[in-house]
């Protein structure tokens, strides 16, 4: 019995050894397969998240591009609309003020030019309208570039009063009976500076008004020098000495109109 029991125990112990080895191998294989499945699952989830993130980034970039394009188109349309309004204002003021100076015989055109209807002034309104559009668009651009937003009397009532004062200064240049051109020029210069101080008071407005007066006076000198028209009693080369004052006050007036139009466009874009 003891011998058989020893044999049986040896057989059972010999059978248990491979069974233990088999079970450990199965556990390792199962753990390896589970780990590989978990890793595959994590990698697939990471790939899915990466693809979704890429889709979201593409959607966001497309939305930003469309928003930028729409904003750019809105700004371009607003700029064009403001330019057309300023051009129309410049043409209207040029027609009215030039007619006043012709009636008072401050500016004289050749007789052959005056013989045909509107041929004497056909080029003046487009030139003045273009200048008004350029100056009116430059004023708010210069304010934003210098970082000095203009906030002094920003309402349309003030702009209309500025236009009325400018027309009054131009009317005074042909109505005042002052024989001395120097006194008349000083009077109009004081009125022009008073217009700037009353309705502008900005360094950019003063600098751009002086630049406008200088360039417009040089352009007028060239026109008179080439015989397009002439001034009566010229005392400043070929023109009257008070002409830069008119150009200065006109530049300040048109600049205020341009600023008000720009402020209206900004408010409208913010509301939209």
What does this molecule look like?
It is a multi-pass membrane protein. Its main location: endoplasmic reticulum. It is a single chain. The protein is mainly alpha-helical. The protein has a domain of 185 residues. Helix content is 81%, strand content 1%. The protein is built from 7 helices and 2 strands. A two-stranded antiparallel ribbon has the order 1-2. Helix 4 packs antiparallel against helix 7. It is elongated. The N terminus and C terminus are likely disordered.
Summarize the structure.
Helix content is 81%, strand content 1%. It contains 7 helices and 2 strands. One of its GO terms (biological process) is SREBP signaling pathway.
Helix content: over 70%
| Biggest sheet features | 2 strands, antiparallel
Based on secondary structure, the structural category is mainly alpha
- Unreliable segments (pLDDT under 50, ≥5 consecutive)? 1-18, 114-119, 266-272
What strand line-up does the widest sheet have? 1-2
Number of separate strands: 2
Query: What's the SSE pattern?
Result: HEHHHHHEH
- What percentage of the residues does DSSP assign to strands (E)? under 5%
| Overall pLDDT score | 74
Tally of helical runs: 7
Shape: elongated
Ends apart, CA distance between termini: 104 Å
Whole-number radius of gyration?
42 Å
Protein name: Insulin-induced gene protein
InterPro entries: INSIG_fam
GO molecular function, one term: lipid binding
GO biological process, one term: SREBP-SCAP complex retention in endoplasmic reticulum
